[in-house]
Amino acid sequence: MSERLFGTDGVRGIPGQHPLTPEMVRSIARAAAGLLLKRRPSVNGGGPFIVMGRDTRASGPALCRSLARGFSAAGCRTWDLGVVPTPAVSYLACGLKALCGVTVSASHNPAEFNGIKFFMGDGLKMPEPLEARIERLVTKPPACAGKAPGSGRGRRPSVPCAIRKGVGGRGEAVDGRGLAGRYGEFLRSVFPAHLDLGGMRIVVDCAHGAASAIAPGLLEDLGAEVVRLGCAPDGSNINEGCGALETRAMRRRVLESRAHAGVAFDGDADRAIFCDEKGRIADGDALIALAALRLKRIGILRDDKVVVTVMTNLGLVKFLENEGIASVIVPVGDRNVADAIEEGGLSLGGEASGHLIFRCFAPTGDGIVTALETLAAVRESGRSFSGALPRYRVFPQILRNVPVAKKVPLKRLPAFLKRVRVHEGRMKGFGRVVVRYSGTEPLFRIMVEGPSAAQVRRITADLTKAYLYESRQEESCLLRPT
To answer: Which of 156, 212, 269, 476 could make an S-S bridge to 95, C-beta 3.0–4.6 Å?
Structure first.
């Protein structure tokens, strides 16, 4: 069986190689638009249109051109936003009542990768069943695939006249870069009107990505003195030694400049990680704790619940429980967090990686919204950044990423799974083991958490060894001729 086209966060790969060849990208766009047109043939009383954005990778413009041609073949115009954060595509797709939104980005991955993420007209990520239908259409034999399928708070932007009049066509996207300003207006409306950031020095690391042209200026407009880092994208340096996954440069600059805090975004700005004035990291768990207490205090934490994932530290779960806040625990992935928020009618959820969803503002994770809400909570506390963060015991945790050539199904590794169960049993409910394949990279992830750092290290080493041994044995069996 071939690898799935869609992973946990859209289609991802190396441009020019399957699945990101021009032909396949056009087919994906054509199939997606055709299926969506069947569900919603009339948009805004005019012709159907799609909003599209990208991050700063050099491969982005060519992929966008292929997408626009595919959309055009299905009868849809494309409004090209240019380089914008992924959450801007979600916001504008919803606000403009577009057929859908699409962003070309590989998020936190290195510059040689790229990807395609779809958003529905309500700003939520495309559901997996619809992705599966697109996948089936584009992987049909050529004779079948050749037929076109289907031949919160904040200000909502108005629909541009050019879209209403049907500008564009013949596979070319309409220039929509001016719409980025409407997303900026929405961001300004997120920050409480009675507050400002005057007197704060903040290091802002944009990972040479999509936040570069928006986040530093926004924080300066709110009164902060901004020290820029990772704000000079050249098409090949996105996420390189900077950003939410590489925070050493940010922490060092905070100490050197005597800043009050630092914030790092990833390449498409849908996640944010902070550090305090002492250079100590405040990850997504810490930001969820801060946000949950604030939202509960001002009366907008719905049902006194937050959505977290199995990777969330047990220390946070126990802390929130003591504060009268229940945790809804879901599998890894911001899509799972978003789904649980929608199903429960909740207002907050997120991951330790820095993906936070403030549902009172937006339907998806937004790193800049997370930064604004975090800084608002700090300002309201009247304390330093470190002083504003809630105190809770963090259980020792190790996440080991094991590179893999082939993702052997875990059901084929019974000895490894038995070893996982044995280790979990020995921790007697005071620790846990989470094993899974990455949905975006060729990695097997082993997360071990427990009360003792030494025990966590031993279990991690043992499981890594056990996985490598049995998976290689299984690969050998699969490769033998029958």
So the answer is: 156
For residue 161, the model assigns a pLDDT of 42
- Cα–Cα distance between 23 and 131 in angstroms, integer? 18
- The C-alpha atoms of residue 230 and residue 209 are separated, in whole angstroms, by 8
pTM: 0.86
pLDDT of residue 476: 72
For 251, half-sphere exposure in the C-beta direction (CA atoms, 13 angstrom radius) is: 16
Tokens of 4: 């799935």
Where the chain has pLDDT below 50, the residues are 1-2, 143-156, 158-169, 479, 481-482
Residue 368 near residue 265 (C-beta atoms within 8 A): yes
d(CA 133, CA 245): 33
Whole-angstrom CA distances from 273 to 99, 148, 258, 428 are: 32, 43, 18, 32
pLDDT of residue 465: 96
Distance CA 276, CA 255 (A): 10
Torsion of CA 20, 25, 28, 31, to 10 degrees: -160
Q: Within a 13 Å sphere around the CA of 165, how many CA atoms are in the beta-carbon half?
A: 6
C-alpha–C-alpha distance, residues 420 and 468, integer Å: 14
Q: How far is CA 85 from CA 215, 370, 435, in A?
A: 10, 13, 30
Which amino acid is it at 92?
A: L
Q: How high is the pLDDT of residue 427?
A: 87
d(CA 33, CA 11): 16
Q: Which of 394, 393, 400 is nearest to 457 (CA)?
A: 400
pLDDT given at position 160: 46
Domain with CATH 3.40.120.10 in the chain: 11-180, 191-388
pLDDT value at residue 428 = 80
Residue 278 token pair: 């002492």
Classified by CATH at the fold level, domain 11-180 comes out as Alpha-D-Glucose-1,6-Bisphosphate; Chain A, domain 3 (3.40.120)
Contacts 24+ apart (CB under 8 A), 326-331: none
Class (C level, CATH) for 397-479: alpha beta
User: Residues 107, 212, 347, 471: which is the catalytic one?
Assistant: 107
Give whole-number Cα distances, 245 to 73, 281, 446, in Å: 38, 11, 18
The 10s digit of each residue's pLDDT in 448-470 is 999 899 999 999 999 999 999 99
Please give the pLDDT value at position 7: 87
> Tell me, what amino acid is at 21?
T
Based on the residue annotation, tell me whether 42 is a catalytic residue of this protein: no
Q: Dihedral angle at the C-alpha atoms of 229, 232, 238, 242, nearest 10 degrees?
A: -10
CATH homologous superfamily for the domain 191-388: Alpha-D-Glucose-1,6-Bisphosphate, subunit A, domain 3 (3.40.120.10)
